[in-house]
Specification:
The protein has 367 residues and is of the alpha/beta class. It has helices at residues 20-28, 47-53, 61-67, 101-110, 131-148, 178-189, 201-210, 222-231, 306-327, 329-335, 337-340, 353-359; strands spanning 2-5, 32-36, 56-58, 70-72, 90-93, 113-116, 170-174, 193-198, 215-219, 234-237, 263-266, 287-290, 293-296, 343-346, 349-350.
């Protein structure tokens, strides 16, 4: 099989979808790997390392798509890449279809086989390919929140941990999953006052047991969310419904009860955002202000720490790449229902029920 690794075209995206070690293993197994020359540059991996591992280095982005049976990426294909997709080709990447109808319809029209990292299920029902990037984004959310709370960044001028005689920042984390857990742990290390909100009481009990004393848990209902918004200096949106659009927990009117200069870091923006006023931003222009509230809604947060994120991502994605390349998709998915759950589209048919429900499209069962 020919496996292609292109450069990521998304603004300020520095990750790459395969390491030289992965190339070496695929080539040793008899596969061909085609890598675009600058694909690893943002992660500090020069083309020479891929070449030494046995990859064929190409200069053109389109050339990767034209020859590859399986294209491995990090982020969804941009509009400029849609014409490069072809029927029967497999594309393995983060798609987040439910947040983007135009992307959904165009990839569907290409008849490519879309295999989504974010809906692949592990043996215990977890999301193993989403977990490492959720860990990175959760930890980064506090790092970014601390920065944008500074007055020169239009924030309230709050130090997360406070100092002797001055109260620390109050941080509300909406969602107690992987992102929320990691955000709370880092915020606790800054000595901030942290509250995690979630609708899963068992999850709240678990978090209550493992978190330090400056992290508390609150059941997420409309009253408690609004109460926390009034108190918060920093709000971290960490809500996830796998494969579906994120629920909007914060309305536009809610911004009026928040403190001027408070910051919202909406990590859920990949899935449409959990705040009504959220809209996608980039690392080049990460924030905007609505009703005196600073919004940070970068859709590829982990891309800013490309080296860390690349290694964390490839550690979990490569075994699946290896399996698909060696056994083919049909055989691989017949043996692994979790991998089958990652197939969102095939031959012009949508196979994800959540995406179909989001846009009112017909859904076919993947077999």
């Amino acid at each position: 099989m020919i496996v292609g690794v292109p450069c990521e075209m998304k603004t300020d995206e520095y990750r790459v979808a395969m390491l030289p070690s992965g190339v070496e293993e695929l080539v040793a197994a008899g596969h061909q790997v085609v890598v675009e020359r600058e694909a690893g540059a943002g992660s500090g991996i020069p083309a020479a390392e891929y070449a030494t591992a046995g990859a064929t280095i190409v200069e053109n982005h389109s050339e990767v798509f034209s020859v590859a049976d399986l294209v491995v990426k990090v982020k969804e294909p941009l509009a400029s890449e849609w014409p490069l997709l072809r029927r029967g080709q497999m594309l393995f990447t983060y798609f987040h279809f439910a947040a983007d109808e135009e992307l959904t319809r165009n990839v569907l029209e290409s008849k490519v086989t879309a295999i989504a990292y974010e809906t692949l299920r592990g043996k215990d029902g977890n999301l193993p390919l989403l977990t490492p990037m959720s860990e990175v984004a959760g930890r980064m959310s506090v790092q970014q929140g601390a920065k944008y709370l500074e007055r020169p960044q239009d924030g309230r001028g709050i130090l997360l941990g406070g100092v002797a005689g001055v109260a620390p920042a109050h941080i509300a984390v909406l969602g107690g999953g992987i992102v929320g857990k990691n955000a709370a742990q880092i915020a606790a290390g800054f000595q901030a006052d942290v509250v995690i909100l979630d609708i899963n009481v068992d999850r709240l009990r678990y978090l209550e047991d493992i978190m330090p004393a400056n992290v508390n848990t609150v059941f997420s209902d409309r009253h408690n969310v609004r109460d926390q918004l009034q108190r918060a200096d920093l709000v971290i949106g960490a809500v996830l419904i796998p494969g579906a659009r994120a629920p909007q927990l914060v309305t536009a009117d809610d911004l009026k009860v928040m403190k001027p200069g408070a910051v919202i870091i909406d990590v859920s923006i990949d899935q449409g955002g959990c705040t009504e006023s959220s809209r996608p931003t980039t690392h080049s222009e990460p924030t905007y202000i609505v009703d005196n509230i600073v919004h940070y809604c970068v859709t590829n947060m982990p891309g800013a720490v490309g080296r860390t994120s690349t290694y964390a991502l490839c550690n979990v994605t490569f075994p699946y790449v290896q399996r698909i390349a060696s056994c083919g998709l049909a055989q691989s998915t017949s043996r692994d229902a979790g991998l089958a759950a990652a197939v969102n589209m095939i031959d012009g048919k949508l196979t994800s029920q959540t995406v179909a429900d989001t846009f009112g499209l017909p859904c076919s069962e993947y077999r």
